[in-house]
Design a protein that fits this description.
Elements: E1 7-10, H1 12-23, H2 30-43, E2 55-59, H3 60-63, H4 68-76, H5 83-103, H6 108-113, H7 116-121
Antiparallel strand pairs: 1-2
Amino acid sequence: MATDKKTIGVTKANAGPLADLVSAGKFSSEMDAAKFAMAYAIKEGKAHGVTDGAETKWNVGSIDPDGSVRSLVEALCPDVSEPYRLVEYLMNEGLKSLKAKMDTGADLYDIMFVSNATDKKQ
């Protein structure tokens, strides 16, 4: 039986985009930005996966003190046996996607608040 993650991290490639999100002034901490990135990956319909090469950043108790993140992931993906491994994956995939959007000149505000209908028109 596999053991779920006790710590969650980002890859070296995603450390810069994470810092950029915080320095843009929209998030008070890297943890908040990483949780947004996870939500963004969920919005994009990212599938199950794992992240290789993530460096330790946070303890799962810091990311999810009340268990709500785990509950969300288990509700969205009931077949997942390692929800925190999926959380790490979603955070990293979300950071990659956000970086790609910002690299095209998209404004972070638009990325955060533009509706899906508007996204499809672009």
